[in-house]
Amino acid sequence: MYLGIDLAADPKHTGMAVLREIDGGLVVESTAVGVSDAQIIDAVHEADGTGVDVPIGWPIRFAELLQDHAAQRLQPPESTDAAWRRGLALRTTDMAVHRRTGITPLSVSANLIAYPAFRWAGIEAKLRDEGIDTSRDGSGAVAEVYPAAALYRWGLPHRGYKGTKNAAVRQHMVELLATLFPAFDWQGFEALAIADDNVLDAVLAALVTQQMAQGNCEGPAADEREIARVEGWIWLPKLPN
Question: How confident is the model over 196-219, as pLDDT tens digits?
Fold first, then answer.
């Protein structure tokens, strides 16, 4: 069972999807929108792997800045230019995603994406307290995923599919996914994914998680593991050979 979570700050906008491998195929078993912390925690316990669409950590340099600034021990930087600020705003994985896809993830330090990240931090703490391996490099029960970057790697439309006005774009994406993954069976849940982008992103998160289990995704390199364990790491589908 593979679990995908499109985490929003508010449960009512949070999507969740479950995929299961049956008879050589991959089926959508269930989807939901309006998912509480308790429902997420219960589902993670049951899953063989979970992909969560939210930053699961903050840049180390940003965390150090907050600590040093609060204690009034921050050493004056040589410059407060764009490069200095970028190192505070973006994690190592964010910059890696940009290099590999041209897409820059939203900054968890300087953007409203921090609100769902706050929520995840609380959920992670509960999972860890219940004995779940929440290693942020993706080596445990949970991995960070990014549907837009995954779609890009798969050669599918990755922009302009959010919101009620873009249902036609989502319908086209659903059709394209069927050609890319012939053994993927929506079991009728495609209507919900077309109607609500939170459902679609949750399904995509679960699909990336299944592809991770198949060895079809790339995570941090050996020399990136240490920082990934603190900041988190976005797993990407591998490029086709």
Answer: 999 999 999 999 999 999 999 999
Average confidence (pLDDT) over 222-234: 97
Mean residue pLDDT of the chain comes to: 96
* Cα–Cα distance for residue pair 202/70, rounded to 1 Å: 37
Closest CA to 89 of 112, 115, 108, 74: 108
End-to-end CA distance of the chain: 27
Residue numbers of the domain that contains 78: 2-237
Q: 14, 34 in Cβ contact below 8 A?
A: yes
Regarding pTM above 0.85, the answer is yes
The answer to whether residues 234 and 105 touch, using CB atoms and an 8 Å cutoff, is: yes
The DSSP result for the chain, as a single string, is -EEEEE--SSGGG-EEEEEEEETTEEEEEEEEES--HHHHHHHHHH-SEEEEES--S--HHHHHHHHHHHTT-PPPPS--SHHHHHHHHS-HHHHHHHHHHS--PPPTTTSTTHHHHHHHHHHHHHHHHTT----TTTTSSEEEE-HHHHHHHTTS--SS--SGGGHHHHHHHHHHHHHH-TTEE-TTTHHHHHH-HHHHHHHHHHHHHHHHHTT-EE---GGGHHHHHHH--EEEEPPP-
Structural domains of the chain, count: 1
∠ CA 83-152-215, nearest 5°, is 100
